[in-house]
Specification:
Chain A: It comes from Rickenella mellea. Chain A: GO terms for molecular function: manganese ion binding; superoxide dismutase activity. Chain A: Destroys radicals which are normally produced within the cells and which are toxic to biological systems. Chain A: Keywords: Antioxidant, Manganese, Metal-binding, Oxidoreductase. The structure is a homodimer. The first copy, chain A, has 2 domains: 57 residues, Helix Hairpins; 104 residues, minor pseudopilin epsh fold. Helices cover 51% and strands 10% of the residues of chain A. In chain A, β1 and β2 form a beta hairpin. In chain A, α1 runs antiparallel to α3 and α4 packs across α5. The longest helix of chain A has 28 residues. Chain A is globular, with a radius of gyration of 17 Å. The first copy, chain A, starts with 22 loop residues before the first helix and ends with a helix. The relative contact order of chain A is 0.16. The interface between A and B is medium-sized, with 20 and 21 residues.
Chain lengths: 208, 178
Amino acid sequence: MSGQHKLPDLPYAYNALEPYISEQIMKLHHQKHHQTYVTALNAAEGAYANAKTPKERIGLQAALKFNGGGHINHSLFWKNLAPNNGDGGKLYDGALKKGIEQAFGSFDNFQKEFSKAALGIQGSGWAWLGVNPQTKVVEITTTANQDPLLTHYPVVGVDMWEHAFYLQYQNVKPNYLEAIWNVINWKEGEERYNDAVQKGLDAGLNVL
Amino acid sequence: MSGKHNWPYAYNVLELYISEQICITINIIRRRANAMTPKGRIGLQAALKCNGGEHINHSLFRENLVPNNGDGGKLSFDNFQKEFSKAVLGIQGSGWAWLGVNPQTKVIEITTTANQDPLLTHYPVVGVDMWEHTFYLQYQNVKPNYLEAIWNVINWKEGEERHTDAVQKGVDAGLNVL
């Protein structure tokens, strides 16, 4: 139901991704940034439901896209991270690992290409590994600001907004990227990948 | 292309409002943009826009700032400040908020630009960087606190020079700052 979105709980403690992503960042990112998107999305959806003219509805589209995208993106994000002493950073043998190696030659090469894409973002945005809906092949892509990923089924997303890393890594984005590989939840990624490839399911549709 | 390479004041002079670490970080970013060779610029239009715009915007920005024991904080226009803050908080993503002169009407207006887009629709008077790197170490997500603080270090004397040049001579500060 619109207008009643809630901030999802993190699947782990705020300090669980240390030392790769600090507790301070996780708290701010979840309790302040993500919460703000949820609150604003509810307000925008409420206003949209009450809007009486196309012009009013069109006027609300930017707020819906920005805050709705923010809520989707961050909800996907928390789930595709995991503590390093758990599933974080471990790409087990399976369909996703195979798919990455087939598409990029090797996992190493995939990481290089992903980092290149993430570092190429001009402004705020997200870097994604996603499934091309037509070819079912994994590809790397980026989105601007809080635009939701619409061109691919999301497998793993990385937040490249400065609030995601600045307190810990400042302007040194490569250090952030190097660190975050240690907490990527490839198990969640593989579930999304299989759903996408086998059933044509978009994780971004079902995450809220 | 040569330009001013030095901050006009010591890094820590703007404290309490903008912490020293943030000023150092901005200067590093500016130097990175300066380091691009002419060859590197060819064919990299997107990168040039980002880094060129970044360089212009940060050059204008650091001239806007001045220590609070100097010319900073002398003027305040309550309603203008409210409108400016509203525009700033409405930026979705990274960008800049500007007070600028409308080239046709010569009236000052508030506007915003996305990412590092240079201001092309107005002659810049005062610009405020709203990228998270500008304030996050000190103010985290609380942008209103950053805005409240930065009013104390806006260099209105510089702003007035730009305004006068724009209104009387149609001169664009953004063209001449590098």
